[in-house]
Design goal:
The chain has 150 residues and is α+β, with helices and mostly antiparallel strands. The chain has two domains: 1-29; 31-149, Immunoglobulin-like, CATH 2.60.40. 18% of the residues lie in helices and 37% in strands. The chain is built from three helices and nine strands. The protein has a five-stranded mixed β-sheet. A hairpin with a 2-residue loop joins strand 1 (32-39) and strand 2. The protein is globular, with a radius of gyration of 16 Å. The N and C termini lie far apart (39 Å).
């Protein structure tokens, strides 16, 4: 059976999520739009967000390709732990991967990331890309950020 969302616009996805939240009861929240901007080599994003559903967009204002990987960090995990991690298996021990958005220089990502942020949790934003195989990852150049959910 074909996916009902795969051929829809981002606006249709927001409408679908809003409809589902209305159908699920009085306590459901409408998804909040969150914008993350990637620079060479940092993220511009809020430090804290309220708990609940979000739709994350990513804009790359840098001069090279960037990504934003969203992790839900385990208690006690720090940004420096993620930066030092040598691969996905090591990062998996630090927390759960929520999703990834990538964008070319000067462009927005082609999609958005839908997540439900959990109250009291810490999330990590990271760019794991490298400009060349013999150069450090963007996260080692400073492209990482902690996000706290209240």
């Amino acid at each position: 059976m074909p996916s009902l969302i795969s051929h829809r616009s981002p606006g249709a996805l927001v409408a679908l999520l809003t409809s589902l939240s209305v159908l699920s009861g009085a306590h459901a929240q409408e998804p909040r739009a969150v914008s993350i901007v990637g620079l060479d080599y940092a993220f511009q994003a809020p430090d804290t967000l309220p708990a609940g559903p979000v739709i994350i967009s990513f804009l790359n204002r840098g001069t090279v390709r960037h990504e934003v990987v969203l992790y839900m960090a385990n208690a006690g995990s720090r940004l420096s732990d993620y930066v030092r991690a040598t691969g996905p298996l090591e990062r998996q021990r630090l927390g759960r991967t929520i999703g990834l958005l990538a964008a070319e220089p000067g462009q927005p990502s082609l999609g958005q990331l839908v997540a439900n942020l959990v109250e009291g949790s810490t999330y990590v934003l990271l760019c794991n890309l490298q400009n060349d195989v013999d150069q450090p990852s963007h996260s080692k150049l400073g492209m990482g950020k902690m996000l706290f959910v209240k």
